[in-house]
Amino acid sequence: MIAPELLEKYGALKKSFDKNEIIFEEGNLPTHYYQIISGQVKMSNYNDDGREFIQGIFYKEQSFGEPPLFLNQKYPANAIAVDDSEVLLLPKNNFLKLLEENPAISLKIIENLAQRLYYKSVMAAEMSTQEPEHRVLKLIDHGIAYFNFKKDANGYHINFTRQQIGDLTGLRVETVIRTIKALEKKGLLKIINRKVYR
Amino acid sequence: MIAPELLEKYGALKKSFDKNEIIFEEGNLPTHYYQIISGQVKMSNYNDDGREFIQGIFYKEQSFGEPPLFLNQKYPANAIAVDDSEVLLLPKNNFLKLLEENPAISLKIIENLAQRLYYKSVMAAEMSTQEPEHRVLKLIDHGIAYFNFKKDANGYHINFTRQQIGDLTGLRVETVIRTIKALEKKGLLKIINRKVYR
DNA sequence: TTCATTTTATGACTTTAATCATAAAACAGC
DNA sequence: GCTGTTTTATGATTAAAGTCATAAAATGAA
């Protein structure tokens, strides 16, 4: 996260996106640095027959879509508002100037990219070799650490739909539903009127 | 890549690893920055029943294992020499000092992490939603751009074993062998005495 | 040059998640 | 409050990759 005041000093502008509105599209060249003020944004791909894979979900104070910005490459995925969201947009050149003039920010960017690479490494290993129960549990446990799940009397409330869990783990909804039930039976999580807790 | 002279100025030492020797292990805390002088290194995970997933393969002048270094987290995978290899090791604190005193290097690190994140994004989407032919082809095409495949009269020589392709895509050897044959039949690649070309 | 190991290969079969069909409950918009 | 959509749910069936067995070719080490 970069302080909003600093971003604004370099010319960042606030933009609002409605729920399900596209922020940028796969295949386009990056033009801005994006940082969320409020709401949530997902980055995802659609394969040939319309099946979705969610690369990640981002919340307030988080940035997204930087890698292609540094590489002059096309976006490998779409960014879509999951809820009504407000986002700060800083044009690429201003962003690079900001980095140059504020070396401490570079370390923040590095740490952020390192964190995301870490998540992708863990999930890639899970998704390639582990069975559904393992995959779902790993996603949930990662989510507790890095997504904004709230803890209450029942434990952490995993506020993802079964479909979202499927799209994040590469499983189908039905499989996720069955897997979650199996995990509950094993006592690894709780289902309280359809909500999942851990 | 950071210039070897600069690394040595900050106290980096050269270390040799035999083929199949472990450089560092999953679960350990990072102590050094690693940059390859010669040979090749893979980062990989083994799941509960011994199945391997290769996170990536790295060659001369490339660094590996940085993310946990920036996050003070444990390594999410093992680093193993694929061939006899020489690696420059720079202790963590010296590396951070180097970064601090050479701001231009930070941008290099950022670009490198961005590149790896880009690869992982593309492969994650493939691995979760696409059929084997698509997955193998994507890996090969990515490899042409970023691994050191050599081009000759037959095209790019994909010098991965079927097993390695399987470990990189989450498929079993037999499936890779059959998939490659199917891709050859479709004219998407060539097999010339067991070697794969594209 | 020989021998052990790795890599590629192929067929038969099995398992597991995907698919398909259907429906109830919950939620959101009007 | 009604209605359309989304989410959760369950059972039956299918397809596709995994598994198992076996072997030839290639490679590398002694």
Automatic annotation (TrEMBL), chains A, B:
GO cellular component labels: cytosol
The name this protein goes by in its record: cAMP-binding domain of CRP or a regulatory subunit of cAMP-dependent protein kinases
Residue ranges of every copy of the Cyclic nucleotide-binding domain listed in the record: 15-116
InterPro entries in the record: cNMP-bd_dom, cNMP-bd_dom_sf, Env_Response_Regulators, HTH_CRP, RmlC-like_jellyroll, WH_DNA-bd_sf
Keywords in alphabetical order: DNA-binding, Kinase, Transcription, Transcription regulation, Transferase
Pfam families from the UniProt entry: cNMP_binding, HTH_Crp_2
Organism: Flavobacterium saccharophilum
One GO MF term attached to the UniProt entry: DNA binding
Domain HTH crp-type, residue spans: 130-198
CDD domains membership: CAP_ED, HTH_CRP
Lineage, top ranks: Bacteria, Pseudomonadati, Bacteroidota, Flavobacteriia, Flavobacteriales
